[in-house]
Structure formats: C-alpha cells, structure tokens
C-alpha cells in the first residue's frame, strides 16, 4: 500500500520517463490517452494533497498569471550570431581561414553538421537539474526573461533526467513552430478574426513574447538544443557531437538530422542532402550550421567579436565624478 506521497512521486517519475520516450527519443511506450490519464491522475492527487506541491512536477507547466512585462537577463557567456556562407567557395574559404589560423590540423577535419532551424534562439538554465530561468538571445548580451513561457513547451523538461545533475547547466537551442502547427494556428486565428502570422518564425517569436503563459501554452512550439553555455559541476565531453548526445541522454531534445562529417567533401554532401530534405522536414530551416567538432580546436579558434578589427577607441582616463 503506497502513501499519497509515494503515489505522487511515482507518477511524477513515470510521466517524466514517458515525456522523454515521446519527445526526445520519438519512441512512445504508451498511447497518448494513457499518458493523459496518468497526467490527470497526478493532477488530481496534487490538488487533493497540496502539502506535496512541487513547482517542478510535470503538471506545473502553466503557472504564473500574465506578466506586466519581461525582466532582462544578462548572458554570462554572450550568444553570438553566426557568420554566413552562401557558396561552396565561401565555405572553403572559411575552412582555409581555420587552417591558416591553426596551422597543423587533424586530417580529415571533423565537422558536426546541423540543420539551421528557423526559429528563435533561447538560453535555458537548469540548476541542480531543475529549470530555473530561460531567456531570449536578445542582442547577444542581454535577453528577455521568458521562463514562464518556456515552461509551457512540452518537449522542454522541467527537470533533467539524471540522478546527479550539474550544479548549473545552460542549454542553448532554437524554439520553433512546426509547419503543421503553424497552419492550424493561422486557420484558428482566421476563424476567430484574429491576426495571422506571416511564417512559423514570426509565430514562434510572437508566441514566446506573450505576457500570458496560458496563451503561449496553446501554441505548438518545440525546442531543439544545439549547444551548451554555462556548465558547472560537470565534466563535459570533449567534442560538440558528444555533448549533444549527452544533452539528449539527460532529457533535452536534439535534432535527429545532426551528424558528423569527416572532411569538406562530406560536409558539402550533408549540405546538399539537407537541401533535398528541406521541403518535407515538417519545419522550416534556412540552411545548415557546420561546426568544428573538437572543443579544444573550437577554443583555439575563439570568436570574432562584433568589434571591427580595423578600429580602436583610445579613451581618456575616467574623470573624477564631480561631487555636487
Ligand atoms: N538555428 C540553429 O538551428 N542553430 N544555431 C546554432 C548555433 C548558433 C550559434 C552556435 O550554434 N546551431 C544551430 N543548429
């Protein structure tokens, strides 16, 4: 005979497991109706026994009342935007710049190749395994706190699926709206005489900027992780691809098209393959993102900050504040 606390905890674990199977592995073990039945059973138990309330329970996705505005969040590690290539020549020039900068290079050079989802970049912070904050990319340094809205996205876990979670883990990824959900949303908007969205990216942006999480919750949004920002209390794998696999293993959804390519020819083949797949992926992509897989090489290469390499500001010493 289980206590109510044990029943509640067991249902929470069971629901987290099935969310992982469905949203991360795409291998549901039970029909949706069974999941819904368990979900409502947990909701009823939690309502009958508020002493066991837990904000990280799978039922706690729509919490807060509408916000008056969005707080600002400063990214500890800037979320910089990507440089672009529009031809094989430009990609080859990118590789040549790397070779010139690094001198000796492993041969072949391994790239982690990813579809470039056309959504909104976000940063999601997990502290001791629980989701505590989420923010938009903003200008790369400062974003908007959209924690309440991010919590409503079904494939984002409220708690990491691991027994020894990192003290702090910042997941970076793209929130997007699949095409089918976008079309259904616009149909409903038309039927209700409301404004429609021009494309899934605008729909995703508009849905994340809702001040009322109850509205965001009704929008068919999804996350695909593509990187890690802050990571404390965990030893991360030393390649990007292995880091993405690790994220997937602890419950974070990662796009299934991502693969490793050895050498420029295979990278360009991935690019052409993704171009062919593009019309029937079910979500918008606007290209591919091709990353050096080895983290040590990434760190050697670093970032070209937004600042131009050709100008410098020569400042006067700070003036003593005039005390009035
Ligand atoms: N949008 C998108 O799918 N992205 N964006 C990155 C990225 C942005 C900065 C570093 O990596 N990676 C992927 N797959």
UniProtKB/TrEMBL annotation:
An example molecular function term from Gene Ontology annotations: metal ion binding
Residues that coordinate or bind NAD(+): 32-36, 81-82, 114, 137, 174, 291, 315
Highest taxon above the source species: Bacteria
GO biological-process terms attached to the record: DNA repair; DNA replication
Keywords: DNA damage, DNA repair, DNA replication, Ligase, Magnesium, Manganese, Metal-binding, NAD, Zinc
Catalytic residues (UniProt): 116 (n6-amp-lysine intermediate)
GO CC annotations, alphabetized: cytosol
Function, in words: DNA ligase that catalyzes the formation of phosphodiester linkages between 5'-phosphoryl and 3'-hydroxyl groups in double-stranded DNA using NAD as a coenzyme and as the energy source for the reaction. It is essential for DNA replication and repair of damaged DNA.
Record family assignment: Belongs to the NAD-dependent DNA ligase family. LigA subfamily.
UniProt protein name: DNA ligase
Residues of the full protein shown: 3 to 326 of 673
């Amino acid at each position: 005979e289980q206590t109510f606390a044990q029943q509640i905890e067991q249902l929470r674990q069971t629901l987290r497991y099935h969310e992982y199977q469905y949203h991360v592995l795409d291998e549901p073990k039970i029909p949706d109706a069974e999941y819904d039945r368990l979900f409502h059973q947990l909701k009823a138990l939690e309502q009958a026994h508020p002493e066991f309330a837990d904000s990280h329970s799978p039922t706690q996705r729509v919490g807060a009342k509408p916000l008056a505005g969005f707080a600002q969040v400063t990214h500890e590690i800037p979320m910089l935007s990507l440089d672009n290539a529009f031809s094989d020549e430009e990609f080859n020039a990118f590789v040549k710049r790397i070779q010139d900068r690094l001198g000796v290079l492993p041969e072949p050079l391994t790239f982690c190749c990813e579809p470039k989802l056309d959504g909104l970049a976000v940063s999601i912070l997990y502290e001791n395994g629980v989701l505590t904050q989420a923010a938009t990319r903003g200008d790369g340094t400062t974003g908007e706190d959209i924690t309440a809205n991010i919590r409503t996205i079904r494939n984002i876990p409220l708690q990491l699926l691991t027994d020894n979670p990192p003290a702090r883990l910042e997941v970076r990824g793209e929130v997007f709206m699949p095409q089918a959900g976008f079309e259904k949303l616009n149909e409903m908007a038309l039927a209700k005489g409301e404004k429609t969205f021009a494309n899934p990216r605008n729909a995703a942006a508009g849905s994340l900027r809702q001040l009322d999480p109850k509205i965001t919750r009704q929008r068919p949004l999804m996350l695909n992780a593509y990187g890690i920002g802050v990571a404390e209390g965990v030893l991360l794998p030393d390649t990007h691809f292995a880091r993405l696999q690790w994220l997937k293993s602890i419950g974070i959804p990662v796009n299934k098209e991502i693969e490793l390519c050895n050498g420029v020819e295979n990278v360009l083949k991935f690019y052409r393959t993704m171009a062919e797949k593009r019309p029937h992926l079910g979500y918008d992509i606007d290209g591919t993102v091709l990353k050096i897989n080895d983290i040590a090489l990434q760190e050697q290469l670093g970032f070209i900050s937004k600042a131009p390499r050709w100008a410098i500001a020569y400042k006067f010493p700070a003036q003593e504040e005039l005390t009035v």
